[in-house]
Amino acid sequence: MKAEMDKIVSLSDEENIPELQKYLSTLTDDQLTNTITNSALKGKKVGTIIKGIFKGSPPSSTAGANRRLLLYQHCIPLCESGDLQTEVAADIIGLLMLETHTLSGPSLATLGSLFVDAIKVGKMSSGKSLELFPTVLTALAACEALSYGKGELSGEEYKKQLINSLCSSRWDPQCVIHLTTMFRDVPLSSEELQFVVEKVLRMFSKLDLQEIPPLVYQLLLLSAKGCKKQVLDGIVGYFKEQDARQEEEQKHGDSLDLEVQSIPQDQLRHVEGTAILHIVFAIRLDHELAREFLKGFKVMYNITSYADLCPFSVALLLSVARIQRYEEQVFELLKGAIIKSFKDEQLQQGSKLLQDLLPGHCSVAQMILDTVQNSVFGWDHVTQGLVQLGFFLMDAFGPKPGPFGKTTEGSLAVARTPTQQACKLGGQVLLQGFKMHEPIRGEILEQVLNRLVTKTASPVSHFLDLFSDIVVSAPMILLESSSKVTETFDHLSYLPLATVQGLLKAVQPLLKVSMSLKDALILVLRKAMFSSQLDGRKSAVTGFLLLLKNFKVLGSLASSQCSQAISSSQIQVDVHSRYNSAANEAFCLEILSSLRRCLSQQADVRLMLYEGFFDVLRRNSQLASSIMQTLLSQLKRYYEPEQDLLPPVKLEPCITAHGDQVYLQEPLAHLLSCTVHCLMWLQNTRQSANPNGDDSDGDEEEEEGYRSDLHAILESMTRRMIKCELEDFELDKSAEFSMGSSVGVKNNIYAVLVMGVYEVLMEYNFIKANYSKRCFEEIIELFSRYHKLSEILKEKSGKGRVPSHKTPRSLFSMGIISTSITVLFRDNTQSREEALSVLRSNGEFVRYILSVVVQKIQQLDETGHTDGPDGQNADKTFRFLCDMTSVLMWRYTNIPSVVEEGGKKEKRSSLSQLCLEGLLRIFTTCQQRYPNKMAQLLSTMGWTSKNGTEQDDEGDVVEMNYFYIRQFQRALFTQLSGGEEDFNSKEAQLLISILSVLSRQLKPSSQQFVQMITWTVKICKETSFEDSAFCKGLLSLLFNLHVLYKSPVGLLLELCQDIHSVLGDIDQDVEVEKQSNFAIVNVKTASTAALLVLSQVDRVLDEVDWLIARKKSQTASDKLGCEATQTAGRQDPVEKAVTLQLGTLLTALSELVQTALLLGTCTVTLLRELTRTYTILTTLVKYYIQVCASQHGSLPARFEKLVKLSGSHLTPQCYSFITYAQVLAWFSLSSSVAKLLRETKAIPNLIFSIEQYEKYLITLSKKSKVNLMQYMKLSTSRDFRINAATLDAALQEQDDSQVVSASSTQEPKQKKRKQ
């Protein structure tokens, strides 16, 4: 063997080619292959031997060509065997590659087949010899003709056959990466490339997870040749599938078979992270790849199902956003997808039709939150994008400033609109990101604080909520960045008050732990106290009061309201050391002395102080002496000590003048209110803490001193205020109250102050009365004075053209109001009967208390809190709401409104009506502010389940809710049972509003919901009262319920028939068939009903439009080789639903369009809805044009019927209605109505939409080979615009007789009689 080896080497070195050829021809194939094998295994001279064999085997001779082929056939498996050293194998393959082009076509074909067969049986696992395959395929493609079977093929075709055969066979998972790498060097046509990419993507699932990233990398390099979209979709699709499997395994982990091989979550996430890095790297280098990626995402997000979006693709998008040129594009795409997802979800939730057609909804928000969770596994390249996305959403969808820059107060408990939900999502992304990723914490905090400081013109409540959540979730982490918070404090005096309040409330837990933060804040607040800006001083008061509430002095009484949401580890820093308590006391007293300066400032600053003192006292009772002394000395400034002088208060110092302007200087009533509440709270707590009164140190004596002083002042004020006449305050009937003069303004301020004082004294006497008849009589005396002044104010303000009087907010506290209505209506204690009769017998007082209840609940609904003690405490406020609900419900159901005939004659609300108004506001407020406590609220009204227990399970809650619905239904039925003259419209409307609110608690699938609809339909069918406001409420309730039960188009058709029947036809010669489906539609209510019907038509059109858009985008995405969805017998359910909805809608609109509607909003709205209907019909026609172009399907019979219906029943009637509306406008006495018709361009828009519809019908007829235009009758009355101008000119120039001749030029009516 060695001899042959040496011989070949020496002959080759001597360049003795003829001898070499001769010698090689003497060797058998076996000898030759053995020689190569031995030298290769030893790694000696193998290169020289192979070169020698090539030299001695000229390709021109048959023997030489065969020997060369033998060399290739032997060396390829030898290199794959794994027995050779890597360098040796690489040398052999390199030498073979150099000589490949010399091989003949048949030899190349044999080699190609050898490679394919080796791959099929899995002999190419090392992939060393695969480097040779591209060279073989390239050489093969260059061959002109090769015999194949019985015929011939070109080299290119033969190569294609090989690749096809290769991609159709089974690949060993170990060689997938090598093959993918190999194909990069093969010249491939687009068809061949597609074969290869599809095969590689199919192999993903067979590979080990660790092998995926390198394969992704190779596939991306391969995508440089083309098929970019396919490659990206395949990679994203694979990871989406893996995520779904992972999620499924987590859900059903216990129940799954043990044999199921699960993928460890952390391993999957790391692989995903690496794959994302590879893709982003490829996108940086290949902008074409980026374009394909973003284009694919745009198409996908236009399809309303978001089927291809997943946490992996979201993470990939966010990583791509780090490339500057794509940043804006990516965030705009994500923003669009998020808001669209929320809008679609809202649309689906509000419609039974859409829920039935498309049951599932894919939540983009959930995917984004999943991406945040997944990013924990080292996805640093995604986190930056998450931060940007969070702020992008919060900036784009945060609350906007209202008119004049005002903002609505209080954030709602539930995000209801899509924009609110998107803003909330941004906050969740940032909060989760803050908790999980240390590197981005500083940036998130800095950006949040920057926005609080810079966005002074727009509301920042969403950023305050986020900041507060960050503080609560990670206070200790935040302390590391306390310098950023301190910097923000420097801007406090320049920020809006609401921002300051929110910010200080949020940092409150940190102040307990960080002395430096607290000191920094105090310095800033002291500066702010002397700010030239009023808001700056108010901010200082807010901050100081907050500090007083939260730094307890040792020995302060425990109060249930003091609980703060701070962890125990933080609390122990301050509270347990004696020194800190002493320091706290000095600190608090120092703050109090700063706050006393405010008592000489503007009314607004003083007001804040008075509203805050009660909470401070309750949290820090040790400060009682200081606070009470302050209040007493302030009160004495305005109190008349001479007992015989009237009035007991000095009003002059309470106002100040600046030029001609008069301002309030001292909110006296609030000062008095604060004093009373502090005094009574202290008295109660001292009594409960020390019932025997045996403690008598100096403090106690001092406290007794100011307590007796204050009681004496309040007693004296009560006595003297009862004696006072209005003349004593110069506020009798002759006084001027117009807001135009300074005297009027002064008198208005005086009146409000005096009324406030009366209210506070009523509350004081009520608290201390202990059901004494004398005290209650004094309360009624005080009230009669209050009432007299209130009436004068109402009367005087009503005389102006614009009523300027707005009832000032009552100073009664929520607690006292809750107690007083309970004792007025529900207290049956025998011993109190006589005293309570004093209050109960005064009807005006009872009415007043109820009106204050309504006012307080309204304030809670609008702002989330109420004035006075406990107004900011959500739990206490809810308890008061529960108590009030119980009393109001009892009062309304147990005392029939018939008893109160007086109310109706006086043209004002009866007590029952006030109770109802209170209940409605409570239910609405509860749904807005306490959405999860509705059941708890209803349970306080005394309902018990059938088994005698209070409500607990869900079934009981539904039953209880329905029980109260039935109560209100009975009340409404009683209203409707009387005659129309006894009908109280306002009360009926309130009942309907309450039913509407309560029905939202029912599940649309429940039996109770169906019963509710049945009842509402019955009422609509049987009630014939001519009251348009009641009709509007009732029909709105019906529509809102019906749309959650089934599509309302059938209902709309019946209502349109009724409206047509009631109002008559536009052609006076046609007599409309009398029919009445719903008695609620009559001459008085028909216009109201028509407007409601049209708004409902608009809603149905929204749904239809959405469905068509969805179908269109699906058709577009399915274009690539998808079979026709339409078969001759079966129509797609969505298409069927769209056609049926539009069919019924067209019939309904054809009824309305023949109705003699009055000219005005109703007519313009109808014309708009008709325009929209034709626009949507055009969209549907365009969809079928698209279907015909891509699938060559036949048009459904239903669609043809729809086109026929539009041509026969709607279009001709539209033209008649246009003529009718024009004639009405010409003869209309009201120029504004004609102007409305002109300015809205309703008629030209309608004509245009009809013509567009017909234009596209012609196109569809050509595409589908169905003559759809046979159903269309082209109108001849399209010159109506010219007629109008002619007629206007005639009216100006000639007399009435010529008007007749001009109008007779109108096209003769082609009206069919109604069948």
UniProtKB/TrEMBL annotation:
It comes from the Eukaryota. Signal peptide: none annotated. InterPro entries: FANCI (IPR026171), FANCI_HD1 (IPR029310), FANCI_HD2 (IPR029312), FANCI_S1 (IPR029308), FANCI_S1-cap (IPR029305), FANCI_S2 (IPR029315), FANCI_S3 (IPR029313), FANCI_S4 (IPR029314). Residues 288-374, 559-794 form the FANCI helical domain. Residues 1297-1307 have a biased composition (Polar residues). Residues 1294-1315 are annotated as: Disordered. One of its GO terms (biological process) is DNA repair. One of its GO terms (molecular function) is DNA polymerase binding. Residues 5-56 form the FANCI solenoid 1 cap domain. Residues 66-283, 382-545, 812-1038, 1052-1288 form the FANCI solenoid domain. Pfam families: FANCI_HD1, FANCI_HD2, FANCI_S1, FANCI_S1-cap, FANCI_S2, FANCI_S3, FANCI_S4. This is FA complementation group I.
